[in-house]
Amino acid sequence: GNASSGPAASVGARPLTRGRVVSYETTQREPGYFEGLLTLTNRTGKPLDGWQVSFTYPGASVKSVWGGVLVRAGGTATIRGTDAAGSLPPGATVQVRFGAAGTPSAPVGCTLNGGPC
């Protein structure tokens, strides 16, 4: 393996990934309430020791989370990984469900650890 030799990859010059890091689907709909599922994939090529996702949800207010920690609730929500989860290996995925009041649409303005999802 020649992984340690050669020029170091320039991080930050361009995205290391093609395709979405965070995907979303609505899993349950009830009048005035719905649940969504965020699937986060580590495409960085190295273990992700911690992650935090923020997104704005038009017409909805995030109230609760399973599989993560709800740092900030409401129309613009912030969810981070649990301390017990540890690091996410390259290529691995983690799924986070959330419950929200309002109308299902799709999250916008998603960021992962401060960068675009």
List the helices and strands and how they pair.
Elements: E1 22-30, E2 33-41, E3 52-56, E4 60-66, E5 69-72, E6 76-80, E7 93-102, E8 108-112, E9 115-116
Antiparallel strand pairs: 1-2, 2-7, 3-6, 3-8, 4-7, 5-6, 8-9
Structure classification: mainly beta
Order of helices and strands: EEEEEEEEE
Specify the number of helices.
0
Average predicted confidence as pLDDT = 85
Helix content estimate:
under 10%
Strand content: over 45%
User: Between the first and last Cα atoms, what is the distance in angstroms?
Assistant: 31 Å
- Number of strand elements: 9
Form type? elongated
Regions with pLDDT < 50 over 5+ consecutive residues? Answer: 4-18
Question: What would you report as the Rg, rounded to the nearest angstrom?
Answer: 16 Å
Q: Note the main sheet.
A: 5 strands, antiparallel
Side-by-side strand order of the widest sheet = 5-6-3-8-9
